[in-house]
């Protein structure tokens, strides 16, 4: 078997694992990999302005394609800059691989330049973090990294490569190599039987679609089961898009923040919940005593240790969500089970029609719900959205509709500020071959916008168009709200003034070779969105629509952030 540079083998492995683009920036300790990518030419590369941005781009690519995104950095601070992205991917079950360069193995104990124990730093926020000390191990470590990233509950892996290891040659033949198999997690048949028995015995059942439905590409099976048994479907924040929100059986979202009033009401009237790939996160459950009530729970999850982590369900099923849904569908058909819509479905539809939040505000300053009304009416079901953390995540959960899986992408648990711009780049580049004309829209806040704003330079350099809709209240609204509810009555360091010394976000866009406009009246929203669409298409660059809103956004438009049981009227 002929010898080849070990980094050439890595590039060949990346391609065979479905990687068509890598996000990163070169440095002295990772140059052998970059040289191999240059010589091969089969993998595109975007040079980022910050390594955290690279991880979020890989994250957005992975959420869109279902594959394993890849980010690359050199040694030292490059790796530590990636930690937030690794944590974000781990929290939301996103498979990415971060590759870092490292000082020579003989220098690691001598505090060499930019030598840091990145494996030790990354271990708490990865499924696997490994430093490769033998060149012959490199191909196998990469194969195992992809297998681990994809297996069970997906997640991130970090591979650290000392520079001396990268420079070696190994025996490797790509023609007889292949990805390692990922073993499917199938449900135990008796538990599927019990799950169907419980579902059929319930008078007011709900299906709760979590992020596991999206990850498993189980949306078709979810809809099929819901329609066969006429069971209303709710979604968690990570499950938005698992079922078209205009579907007659869609029953909203339950939670203390990202929720609908009719979703909370439907949930509290239910007597059984079939939870599919959901974590029972604290912003979804709120008060556990209220959340659990007298209802029964079936928890299906691919990761065994997730079951019982928050509370013990009446039935736990370890399974890939899609395989479980197929199994329970086959069982229901074998039994000849089929239900018509009854009183419970009618009740859920009644709640959905009546317990709504107002959106048709004409106020100046603009009220946030009006923005989401315009977004829902302007953009098609084919549009891809990315959004992150803050009041606009709450408003998005409450008001924005999602129609298809992988089209509403939100960093849920970690909530890093600045995620949207690099994530939008990852989403748009993921669609380059399959849906090159697809619209990508990032919904951002005025504060988080500035955290990784430098990645606009990447989009401008590589002609990556998308629209950013900024909801700007000029202060840290969610922090003020949290302070008020926490009893701090704090008004300290939460203002981001828009005065002469403040930030002009439109000029920031222009400085990066992009464009932007500011909206101050509700009637200006639609024309601005139309302009942004045309401008992004004309320039092939990001475009900003900055919408100035009211500063007082207390109680997140009608529902307190601290109690699932609250249903105050909307003013």
TrEMBL record:
GO terms for biological process: isoleucine biosynthetic process; L-valine biosynthetic process. SUPFAM superfamilies: DHS-like NAD/FAD-binding domain (SSF52467), Thiamin diphosphate-binding fold (THDP-binding) (SSF52518). It catalyses: 2 pyruvate + H(+) = (2S)-2-acetolactate + CO2. Its EC number is 4.1.1.47. The keyword Ligase applies. Keywords: Ligase, Lyase, Thiamine pyrophosphate. Residues 6-119 form the Thiamine pyrophosphate enzyme N-terminal TPP-binding domain. It is an enzyme of class 4 (lyase). Residues 389-547 form the Thiamine pyrophosphate enzyme TPP-binding domain. Pfam families: TPP_enzyme_C, TPP_enzyme_M, TPP_enzyme_N. Residues 192-328 form the Thiamine pyrophosphate enzyme central domain. GO terms for cellular component: acetolactate synthase complex. CDD domains: TPP_PYR_POX_like. GO terms for molecular function: acetolactate synthase activity; flavin adenine dinucleotide binding; ligase activity; magnesium ion binding; tartronate-semialdehyde synthase activity; thiamine pyrophosphate binding. NCBIfam families: PRK11269.1. Belongs to the TPP enzyme family. This is Glyoxylate carboligase. It comes from Actinomadura macrotermitis.
């Amino acid at each position: 078997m002929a010898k080849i540079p070990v980094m050439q083998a890595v590039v060949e492995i990346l391609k065979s694992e479905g990687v068509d683009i890598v996000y990163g920036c070169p440095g002295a300790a990772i140059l052998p990999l970059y040289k191999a990518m240059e010589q091969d030419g089969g993998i595109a590369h975007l040079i980022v302005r910050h390594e955290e941005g690279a991880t979020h781009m890989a994250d957005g690519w992975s959420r869109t394609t279902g594959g394993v995104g890849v980010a690359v950095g050199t040694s030292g601070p490059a790796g530590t800059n990636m930690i937030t992205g690794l944590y974000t991917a781990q929290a939301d079950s996103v498979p990415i691989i971060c590759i870092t360069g490292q000082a020579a193995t003989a220098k690691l104990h001598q505090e060499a330049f930019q030598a840091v124990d990145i494996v030790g730093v990354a271990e708490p926020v990865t499924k696997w973090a490994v430093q490769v000390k033998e060149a012959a191990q490199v191909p196998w470590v990469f194969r195992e990294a992809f297998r681990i990233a994809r297996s069970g509950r997906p997640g991130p892996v970090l591979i650290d490569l000392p520079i001396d290891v990268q420079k070696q040659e190994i025996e490797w033949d790509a023609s007889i190599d292949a990805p390692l198999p990922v073993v499917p997690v199938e449900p135990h048949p008796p538990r599927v039987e019990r799950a169907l028995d419980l579902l059929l015995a319930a008078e007011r059942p709900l299906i709760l679609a979590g992020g596991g439905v999206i990850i498993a590409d189980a949306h078709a099976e979810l809809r099929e089961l819901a329609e066969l048994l006429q069971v209303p479907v709710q979604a968690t924040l990570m499950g938005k898009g698992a079922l078209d929100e205009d579907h007659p059986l869609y029953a909203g979202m339950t939670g203390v923040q990202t929720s609908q009033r009719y979703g909370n009401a439907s949930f509290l009237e239910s007597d059984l919940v079939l939870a599919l790939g959901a974590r029972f996160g604290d912003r979804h459950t709120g008060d556990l005593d209220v959340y659990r009530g007298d209802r029964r729970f079936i928890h299906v999850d691919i990761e065994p240790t997730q079951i019982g982590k928050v509370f013990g369900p009446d039935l736990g099923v370890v399974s890939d969500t899609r395989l479980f849904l197929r199994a329970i569908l086959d069982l229901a058909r074998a039994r000849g089970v089929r239900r018509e819509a009854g009183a419970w479905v009618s009740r859920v539809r009644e709640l959905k029609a009546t317990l709504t939040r107002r959106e048709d505000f004409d106020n100046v300053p603009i009220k946030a719900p009006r923005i989401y009304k315009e977004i829902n009416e302007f953009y098609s079901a084919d549009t891809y959205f990315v959004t992150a953390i803050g009041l606009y995540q709450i408003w998005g959960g409450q008001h924005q509709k999602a129609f298809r899986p992988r089209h509403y992408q939100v960093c849920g648990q970690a909530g890093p500020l600045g995620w949207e711009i690099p994530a939008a780049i990852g989403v748009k580049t993921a669609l380059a071959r399959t849906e090159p004309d697809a619209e990508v829209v990032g919904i951002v806040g005025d504060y988080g916008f500035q955290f990784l704003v430098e990645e606009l330079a990447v989009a401008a350099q590589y002609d990556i168009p998308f629209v950013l809709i900024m909801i700007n209240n000029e202060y840290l609204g969610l922090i003020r709200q949290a302070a008020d509810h926490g009893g701090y009555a704090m008004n300290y360091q939460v203002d981001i003034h828009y005065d002469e010394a403040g930030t002009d976000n439109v000029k920031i866009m222009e400085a990066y070779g992009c464009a932007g406009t500011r909206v101050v009246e509700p009637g200006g929203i639609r024309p601005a969105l139309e302009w942004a669409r045309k401008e992004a298409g004309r320039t092939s660059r990001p475009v900003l629509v900055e919408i100035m809103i009211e500063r007082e956004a207390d109680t997140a438009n009608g529902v307190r952030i601290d109690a699932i049981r609250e249903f105050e009227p909307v003013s």
